[in-house]
């Protein structure tokens, strides 16, 4: 049985992760070109997203295939945004860095600005597992009611509206308008398109429009429906999968140190969700111990890192916590 203190266990995990990173960098010199690798991955994922949209437009692939492939491409852009928040690419070249930040936001239009999220995410690392962790609470962490939790996970805007009074009371410095405005203009356009299509089809169900009397409206809706297939529905799937995984693996309450902030999700039950969030639950705990690593490096060293983490009291697949609104039960 491990009798080390929490501090000793954390130090052992951090040392093991950094040692494995050093070995990988020594073995693969290409890893030294971090800026170039990040940019190449971004351009490839962006090309894939545009490519499947073109294939759908040309009716070469069906809508369901476009949605799945676009969601996978968008999930890569989330990992890149996460890295960019920690300034892993072009940190000394603002033009390239901000170009990448804008591009990953355009690929994931249902999120707040990555520049605003940087502040929120760095705060998450300081306050993970507590009432003050706004980033995780926005995606359902700590919510016991399964219906409310599902709503927050799938629709961030409704979740923010529903939770604003509780957040105002419990989170220092919380401002509904600050978070809401952080989505302008890209997330704003996303929700306008999403709800316009929903409202149109509900109204049209009871009051059908003639083609002649509303041709401009139908033309607009056709464009919106194309965007629904190539960008909006894929991002609903991507973000819902990510939100479900991240809010399941982060603890809320009972957290005293880094060992207790997260557990690792390796269960096959999460495989469908991991497909659309780039194996997030399998590797994100590594990030809590060593934040300044590109996402692909975490994937490469995860096998050895997870073995060490298990030896040093990091929990795996703690489903009891999920049932108890993410409480860390000592």
TrEMBL record:
It comes from the Bacteria. Residues 60-318 form the Fatty acid desaturase domain. The chain crosses the membrane at residues 30-50, 184-207, 213-233. InterPro entries: FA_desaturase_dom (IPR005804). The keyword Transmembrane applies. The keyword Lipid biosynthesis does not apply. Coiled coil: none annotated. Keywords: Membrane, Transmembrane, Transmembrane helix. This is Fatty acid desaturase domain-containing protein. It comes from Pseudoalteromonas aliena SW19.
